[in-house]
């Protein structure tokens, strides 16, 4: 199966490739690695690239995309590129300038998908993570329905082909869907999703509204960062995943990625390691049985690696709801 042709239709008529290349890396990783890795990913067949203003690498990722267009590997329309509106720019008047800044960094005319990174609004300004003297986050208060209206205008202006959200729970999605005068539904909700947090209820909700669920942290996380709860077990060492992987002569990572694709989830694979980037493409080379899928479903234990604890007191903190 040619992976480039495996796509899902979004509710606005555009198509998203089911396997995406994630570009987030901790701050200590040199930005040049994002350039190298993204270029390599495109060379071996990735067509869906996921980044964000927060990652501070859009210059490099854009350079990688443009270099692969320049050398004839791809055309711009072959690439599906996602950027995200960061929490300090959720006020409606900041939305278009934020997208325009991303486009300027990328040196692209449009993005394929622009999503609200999180419903938790933070104090506007130049700091990504504004904190007070005691180290607590400084919140803003924004109705994300107004943020959404500004995203709709960006779509109408042709700056982005599609618009969506990330880290929203079903009640927050419901709020946008039932908004008076809604012009465009979110095409997706990008959330943490893996066998230890399989999001089956949220997935069902999204499917019922023709919203695609996009999975980040699909392999769990071993990152040490202020966003990650480090007491969690390592997903890829799970004995059930390992046994299924062995049976198919694949790796646990590939089984975790394949699991998502078979349940209709668009999945992001994040690695800057060339061997693993290439390996992740093999997700199209095998199929899990219904028994495998059931066994993996049984691993769910509501473990959240990215629990964003610092935002827990915010009125829009998304993870206090069951789904």
TrEMBL record:
It comes from the Eukaryota. SUPFAM superfamilies: NAD(P)-linked oxidoreductase. Residues 19-300 form the NADP-dependent oxidoreductase domain. One of its GO terms (molecular function) is oxidoreductase activity. Keywords: NADP, Oxidoreductase. It holds the Pfam family Aldo_ket_red. This is Prostaglandin F synthase 1. It comes from Odocoileus virginianus (White-tailed deer). The gene is LOC110142559.
